[in-house]
Amino acid sequence: MVASSHARTASSSEGPVPCGGAEAWRRHPGLQRHWRRFWEHPRQAAVLARYWGRADSLSRGDLLRSTCHVGAWVALAPAGSELPVGEDGLSSVQLLARLLRLRGKARLTAWLRGVLHLVALRMEDIASNRLGGVLSEHWLELRRSIPQSVWRKCRETCPPLEATPWPSAQAGSQEEGAQEVGNMDAEVCQVDGEQHKEEMPDEEVWRNILDTTLHANGGILDWRILRDRMIDCYECCYTSADVSREILGSWALSSFPKSYLSSVDAFVRTPPGECQLRDAAACSADAGAKSATALRLFHRDVCRWLNTSAHEQRETWVGGLETQLREALAQHSTSQLRAVFRAAVASLSQPRVRTGGGSGNSMDEAALARLQLKLQRRLRSIVLQVLRSGLLDLLSDVRLLPMLLRLRCLVQGYELRHEERGDICSAASEGQWALLKQFLQADSASKPALQASEEHSATTGQVLEPVCGMQVAEEAASAPAPAGVLAAGSQRSWHRSTTGGTYTPNKRLKALPNVIETDVGVLLCCGTCSQQLISRWVVSHRFDKQFTLRPRGGHRSCGGKYLAPPGVPCKADQITHLEFCPHGTIGRDCRECNKLLLCSHRQVPRLCKTCRRARGTRVLAEEVKKSRSLSTSIIFRVLFAWCHRPPSLC
Description:
The protein is mainly α. The chain has helices spanning about 1-15, 20-25, 30-40, 45-55, 60-75, 90-105, 110-125, 135-145, 150-155, 170-190, 195-200, 205-215, 220-235, 240-255, 275-285, 290-305, 310-330, 335-345, 365-375, 375-390, 400-415, 430-445, 455, 460-465, 475, 505-510, 575-580, 610-645, and strands at about 485, 490-495, 515-525, 530-540, 545-550, 560-565, 570. Among the domains are: about 1-155, no CATH class; about 285-350 and about 365-450, no CATH class; about 510-590, no CATH class. The protein is flat, with a radius of gyration of 32 Å. Mean pLDDT is about 65; it is low at about 1-15, about 130-135, about 160-205, about 215-290, about 355-360 and about 445-495.
């Protein structure tokens, strides 16, 4: 109650908030006064240290008011000037981030929300290179500390830029970039459709055009206009729009300023790689929210890899992926394996031509250093190990579509650029690329994802070539593959019970005497996507009833449960519920079979009502004890804070 009253007093003491946009806030006399007093102070480092030292002891009202003051120092600083830095590298940006973290979940006042809006706009200017800087670690920390509601408000008030025609009145260098693009458009579009591929500029020409235009003005508008012109150009050049857009998108990604590729930049109106991901979105538009989330995650990994320019950081990135791959294969974790596959594909570069005897283009020292690390070879090895494992369903899992499309475009893009050399086997590391092409050909030969009937439920092992290292369903019983090591050191064979659209229980279930296979199959149907599954296995109940077995995990792709037709009894293949003892009851619940495990009431502890009631009472008593100790601790902290309150509150 005291904190709330102080917050209201602090909010009302600042006066009414300005009426208008960002410029009205910047010209407000109160904010200008706070900023000028700090900027003209002879000992700015001492002011920062004083605010930092007393931040923990401030009340809520004083904390919000101090946050407004520091936010004004950051937002109203002159463009292009460096913010003051105190002792131990303390800056006003770092101080503002700490004050925002100490705020917790306190409601933002009108003053604080407006000041944070100005801070967000300044961060946008820095991120877009309009102030000639990059987001340092302190700015990134501040970006994470600002509430998401502030960023949403900024995006609402700042509409995206429109792709308007090229401005007539621009700088001379910008006109030269536009003229160069226009000349190339005319040069390429004058040729007939059959000659377009020969006249298509190579990668270096596209890079030079993109770099010239981006460095001319350094704004997002140049990128949007250039992108539209390039789209018009390559749509006339290639009949295969999917491949050409992906190639162009990958070239644009490599030349795009790293400040626009930052994963924490909320003001990127044109996401990098939009050309690359647009076709993937069109291919998986009917896949729902899963495919959209997969596109965003893949885009994030692409940005992370491109923002990591140092060789040591990239080597650490690849080493971490290799470690995660080993853990995922040992634990048979499909989610972790999917994340490794996504990050590895996002880090792959285009295939390069195999050079020999000094032929080919010369590489600079940085390229030679990257080549010595063999990072791309290790990344391709990670991708191949994931595909060979067989744990990912390449046919029906829509979350893998962006990665598969990226791999397919890398292979087809190389073959289009180097038609005279033949297929991908002419590239460097031809063995790895040839294996990847075999995987992609096997995947493209099958039906698309989310289609009904038997092709939808077929696994990757039925379609891929034998080079994949996977076992088909007939070999799974004799030679299971792959095997994962458990914590105790034993091995567990990997088994999928829905291979080929027919349910097959594992070895432990088959070994049960009451589980038998019949000649008549029951058609099970997924309750979510209506995928069909045939089950010929039944379990005999203790009362001479038979239940059709169904996989307890349900349909792996959509998460739905398999349902039997009306009137047909069905049971999930949970072995603890199907393993009956000779006494006609479930093995773990039989008193005769578990005599040594009975409680004092001569009952199985899991089923004894007295023991369960006592166990619930004990748990409740422990929770009450914890809640009492927590309440006592809270009361003590409140009293301690009130006794040590600052003199201004007395």
